[in-house]
Amino acid sequence: MVVLSQPALDHYSLIKTCNKPTSLFSGIPVVDLSDPEAKKHVVKACEFGFFKVVNRGFPMEFINRLEAEALRFFNSPQSEKDRAGPPDPFGYGSKRIGPNGDVGWIEYLLLNTNPDVISYKSHSIFQENPQIFRSAVDDYISAVRKMACDILELVTEGLGIEPRDALSRLLSDEKSDSCFRLNHYPPCPELQALSGRNLIGFGEHTDPQIISILRSNSTSGLQISLRDGTWVSVPPDPTSFFINVGDSLQVMSNGKFKSVKHRVLADHSKSRVSMIFFGGPPLSEKIVALPPLVGEGKESLYKEFTWCEYKKSAYNSRLGDYRLGLFEKSVQPTDHHLVKAPLFSKD
Ligand SMILES: C=C1C[C@]23C[C@@]1(O)CC[C@H]2[C@@]12CC[C@H](O)[C@@](C)(C(=O)O1)[C@H]2[C@@H]3C(=O)O
Ligand SMILES: O=C(O)CCC(=O)C(=O)O
Ligand SMILES: [Fe+2]
């Protein structure tokens, strides 16, 4: 990745933080997967929309092997990496995110992971790199998909919804449209001269799928937006995983669970490496609220759509767009929606 001069940096999405350094947030829900009460905690955590899971017993060897291979790839000559790009949407990408003009201080590999097509395995990157990279990706993806399914089963159990695979089947299905991303945010030394300003690595967005499982090295940078719009920094934890409720799960929970906006800021001295599994349903799957979450006589908050329709619409949008907006039902002027304004002020 080239080092950018000040004018070049100005060309990028530089954001101001009002000279208020974002504080490390200590309020992120933590779910201990070895706790017999985990299902109850997972439901609460999904209501918040972003949480950390610990004690999964995920082989550290899978993580270390994949991180080492990813770094070996990202540290290889630019011409070699470019042979695995541009992303269409899969493949190697640098600075450009998605097809609609978003940019960031990032390079990445985006791979699809449908269990039936295994098409990422035939991607040129795995032809030109030793077999060890491909097997590191395989091992990691199998284990992380299993974790995503187990978490979704805790969700259905915690909600008292039958069958318990009502959500997890969407990811274990051989047509599951999931994907996997390796992100590399190189350090940006110029940032030191830009006191009070931050460089966007990955712009603010929500993830469109059902669930995302993120693991990063110990470099901070990930931030989430709280309900009041404040951005807070997520303390990195390389031995744990962070879970994002995706837009699709927000819809399937009829708004009970929240798809939280997040972004990544670049660091001036340390590189950040993250690996994210995005668990998505088969393309033909209808994304509708689970009936027990709609409530007797109530309507779901969203129109009916398939994952294929939502995905298409997502890929026509910019990163920061509010994608679910197009699929919300317009508010009906029923009693239920009327704001009960007090007739008299108390003071
Ligand atoms: C700007 C874009 C990049 C993205 C596709 C999109 O048009 C809008 C959603 C973006 C996102 C965010 C979560 C994942 O990183 C991702 C792979 C996804 O499924 O949706 C990316 C897309 C991408 O990088 O291609
Ligand atoms: O790289 C990260 O830490 C998060 C990136 C992200 O949110 C994404 O790829 O969707
Ligand atoms: Fe994301």
Automatic annotation (TrEMBL):
SUPFAM superfamilies: Clavaminate synthase-like. Keywords: Dioxygenase, Iron, Metal-binding, Oxidoreductase. GO terms for molecular function: gibberellin 2-beta-dioxygenase activity; metal ion binding. Its EC number is 1.14.11.13. Its cofactor is Fe cation. Catalyzes the 2-beta-hydroxylation of several biologically active gibberellins, leading to the homeostatic regulation of their endogenous level. Catabolism of gibberellins (GAs) plays a central role in plant development. Converts GA9/GA20 to GA51/GA29 and GA4/GA1 to GA34/GA8. This is gibberellin 2beta-dioxygenase. The lineage of its organism: Eukaryota, Viridiplantae, Streptophyta, Embryophyta, Tracheophyta.
